[in-house]
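Data's thin. Show one?
=====
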Amino acid sequence: MKREAKVQLTSSELGTMWKTYMALTHELMVYDFFKDKTIDHKAKAIITSYISEAENIKNEIIKIFKDEGDIMTTEYLLKKGVFAKPPNVTMPKQAEFIEDKNYMSGLNFFSQKRTLNTIEVGYLYESLEFHIFFMKIINGICAGCKRKYC
């Protein structure tokens, strides 16, 4: 039996999963409040169903974080050479919190620079990925137009 190698989380995957986890946590608190306050039984059933599904997703993300990640990426597009694989990051061993108000002063050229966090790296990668993909589509459309109309 052949064992597959464990794939390390990339920066954009880690950042996206963290954003999803945080959004789900917030949504679950809001919907739990709505569920307790609503008097409409049909609305309460819908909210309860959503809470159940969101809890399952949140638990799956927690499991992935605990296992240090083996999630699907855009393997097909990576194999075809359309996209480069995003940079890998190591899973943090402890939580770090922002303690200084100057954390977001990246535009000040005279301030001390900091490293990008995983969410910022993910945003950069997703932006590049989108622009590369969009340019490939535009080039394909232009190539088709030249043959047909020129």
Notes: Confidence is low (pLDDT under 50) at residues 69-73. The helical segments are 11-37, 41-66, 75-79, 118-149. DSSP finds four helices and no strands in the chain.
